[in-house]
Amino acid sequence: MLHYRAPLSWPESIPVTPLMKQRSDNGFSPSITLTDATNFLKEEIDSAGIAQATLYLDVEQPNIDRLRKKIGSRTGACLHIRYRDHSYIITCDRWQRTEHNVYAMHLVLRQWCNMEKWGIGSLPALMAGFEINYENDIFSADESVENIEECLKSFGLGANATLEDATAIYHRRAKSLSHDNEQLVQLNIAMDQIRDYFSRKQPE
Question: Is residue 9 located within the same domain as residue 109?
Fold first, then answer.
C-alpha cells in the first residue's frame, strides 16, 4: 500500500540536486500527470509485493486532483519502503517536474522486478544499496509517532486506543459524512494511516 506525506523529507546523507542543475528529460512524456505518475508507482509497489511504502512530496493529496495542494517549491520525491523487515529509501530530484521524478522511481522498481523475474537477483539484493537503518534516520520513530497520534486525536482517541475503537468511530463518521466527499476523503486517509500503524504493531 502506498501512502503520501507532505512536506518533502530528504535524507541528510543524500545530496540535493541544485536547482540550476535540474533538467528536463525529453524521454519522459510531457503530458504525464502527477496522478498518472503516482498510479504507475503504486502499481509497481503492489506488483513487487511491498506492503508498506510512503511517498514524501511537497504536494498534499497528490493523487486527488481537486484536493491537490503544493506546499513547497521542491520538485523532488522521496520513497520509504518497508520490505521483509528491512527499510529502504529511494530519492529522485534530478528532473524539473515532480511528475518525472516520481515516474523515474516507477521505472527503477519496474527494472528491479524484471531483474528478479529474469533470475538476475532477488529484490532485497537489488535494493541493498538503498537500505537504511531507521533507528539512526531523521524520519523514523518521532515522525511516525506524531503522525499516528495526530490521527488518533482526530478520532477523539488516546494512545491506548485499539483498532476496533478506531474502526467503530470511523464507521459512524463515514455514515454522517456520506454527502461531504472532501471530508470523507480526509477521514479515509486518516483511517488508512491508523490501519497501517496497527498492522505494523502486530507480532510477526
Answer: yes
pTM of the model: 0.68
Number of neighbouring beta carbons within 10 Å of residue 40: 18
Task: Say what the pLDDT of residue 145 is.
Answer: 54
Give the residue from 106, 90, 95 showing the smallest Cα distance to 41. 106
User: What are the cell numbers at 9?
Assistant: 523529507
Residue 59: predicted pLDDT:
93
CA dist 27 and 40 (Å) reads 16
Residue 139 pLDDT grade (very low, low, confident, very high; cuts 50, 70, 90): very low
Taking the C-alpha atoms of residue 38 and residue 45, their distance in angstroms, rounded to an integer, is 10
Residue 82 forms beta bridges with which residues? 52, 87
Same-domain check for residues 131 and 104: yes
Range(s) of the domain holding residue 100: 2-136
Amino acid, res. 58: D
Q: Which of 117, 136, 155 is the last residue in one of the domains? A: 136
User: Which residue pairs from 118-122 have beta carbons closer than 8 angstroms and sit at least 24 positions apart in sequence?
Assistant: none
Q: Are residues 77 and 145 both part of a single domain?
A: no
Domain final residue, candidates 87, 114, 136: 136
Q: Region of 61 please: left (phi>0), alpha (psi -120 to 50) or beta.
A: left
In angstroms and rounded to an integer, the radius of gyration of the C-alpha atoms of the chain is 18
Residue 202 has pLDDT above 70, yes or no: no
Amino acid in the structure at residue 194: I
